[in-house]
């Protein structure tokens, strides 16, 4: 799960606050993309998302259509060809994760439906638990509102909240999270994720490296801030968090599959291990070597329709380090 605490630790070389000794040592390794002797990622016998995923987006609040198109194209890019290094190439690392039956994370992710909750069915201030009620509303709405199917076999529900929606712990402890629904609320158990638009509320925290975490202070030359490849800090930052949560929910959908640590209520998952790393040489406050488009905006992956995205790396269980297809080695 996307943890601001881990993110703040990652930025400790940029901002004047302390961090734990263990994590400081992790960031100081010669292999800045991750150190295999410090990571104890284990499989806990639960399922991964091995069947083709039917993804359903719930747009909560009022959304800019251009921002929605950028996000949709990222979703389409997961299972569609694009020039190397592509989003689909990035997803191939996730396919290395399997369950006890030998089934690997699927290569197929399809955008199968969308629901527009423009009336803010549960208000403008949300809690983690209210996300499940939003999903319940989306699958039980009247036919005039084109409700989503209740797909507990292959469904994955993605709740995206607009710039004016407040979320419990958003910008303070989380940028996004994933979990599974409770039968007492939704009627079945199925995986979901939530991500908020941070462009207005906390771009420096949840949209780095497109914004500096120093508030209104100008970013120093060494801060590594780059322009957003799709023209909007909040949307481009949100896409990296979406990728983060998709990686983790695919490999740990019921919080009993792949994670490090002994506490399943606070697991360190495959994207948490690589938070803030986007290219070779990354670490210690440096995101790594990434490409630049003709306008100087940063990216590391290609998508459909000529799109470019900057998406964080994930832990590769074979290489035993953080990895992305734009790696130089």
Let me know the largest β-sheet.
5 strands, mixed
Query: What order do the strands of the largest sheet run in, or round the barrel if closed?
Result: 3-2-5-8-7
| Percent strand | 15-25%
Distance between the termini: 28 Å
Structural category: alpha/beta
Rg, Cα atoms, Å: 19 Å
Explain how this protein is built.
The protein is an alpha/beta fold and 329 residues long. The chain has seven helices and 15 strands. The chain has helices spanning 4-10, 21-27, 65-77, 87-94, 128-140, 203-206, 233-251, and strands at residues 41-43, 53-60, 109-117, 125-126, 155-161, 166-167, 176-180, 191-196, 258-260, 291-292, 298-299, 301-302, 308-309, 314-316, 321-323. The strands form six sheets. It has a five-stranded mixed sheet, sandwiched between helices. A two-stranded antiparallel sheet has the order 1-9. Strands 4-6 form a two-stranded parallel sheet. It is globular.
Write the layout of secondary structure elements.
Layout: H1 4-10, H2 21-27, E1 41-43, E2 53-60, H3 65-77, H4 87-94, E3 109-117, E4 125-126, H5 128-140, E5 155-161, E6 166-167, E7 176-180, E8 191-196, H6 203-206, H7 233-251, E9 258-260, E10 291-292, E11 298-299, E12 301-302, E13 308-309, E14 314-316, E15 321-323
Parallel strand pairs: 2-3, 2-5, 4-6, 5-8
Antiparallel strand pairs: 1-9, 7-8, 10-11, 12-13, 14-15
């Amino acid at each position: 799960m996307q943890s601001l605490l881990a993110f703040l630790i990652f930025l400790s070389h940029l901002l004047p606050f302390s961090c734990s000794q263990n994590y400081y040592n992790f960031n100081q390794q010669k292999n800045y993309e991750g150190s295999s002797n410090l990571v104890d990622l284990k499989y806990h016998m639960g399922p991964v998302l091995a069947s083709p995923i039917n993804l359903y987006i719930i747009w909560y609040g009022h959304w800019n259509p251009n921002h929605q198109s950028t996000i949709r194209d990222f979703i389409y890019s997961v299972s569609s060809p694009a020039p190397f290094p592509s989003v689909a190439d990035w997803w191939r690392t996730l396919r290395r994760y399997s369950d006890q039956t030998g089934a690997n994370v699927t290569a197929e992710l399809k955008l199968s439906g969308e629901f527009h909750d423009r009336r803010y069915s549960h208000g403008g201030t949300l809690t983690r638990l209210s996300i499940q009620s939003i999903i319940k509303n989306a699958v039980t709405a009247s036919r005039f509102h084109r409700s989503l199917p209740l797909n507990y076999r292959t469904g994955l529900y993605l709740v995206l909240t607009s710039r004016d929606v407040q979320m419990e712990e958003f910008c303070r402890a989380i940028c996004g999270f994933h979990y599974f629904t409770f039968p007492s609320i939704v009627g079945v158990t199925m995986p979901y994720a939530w991500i908020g638009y941070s462009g207005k509320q906390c771009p420096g925290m949840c949209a780095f490296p497109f914004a500096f975490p120093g508030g209104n202070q100008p970013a120093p030359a060494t801060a590594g801030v780059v322009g957003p490849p799709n023209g909007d800090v909040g949307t481009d930052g949100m896409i990296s968090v979406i990728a983060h949560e998709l990686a983790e929910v695919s490999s740990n959908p019921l919080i009993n599959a792949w994670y490090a640590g002994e506490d399943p209520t606070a697991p360190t998952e495959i994207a948490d291990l690589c938070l803030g790393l986007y290219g070779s040489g990354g670490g210690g406050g440096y995101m790594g070597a990434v490409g630049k488009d003709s306008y100087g905006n940063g990216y590391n992956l290609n998508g459909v329709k000529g799109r470019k995205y900057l998406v964080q790396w994930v832990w590769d269980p074979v290489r035993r380090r953080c990895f992305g297809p734009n790696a130089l080695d």
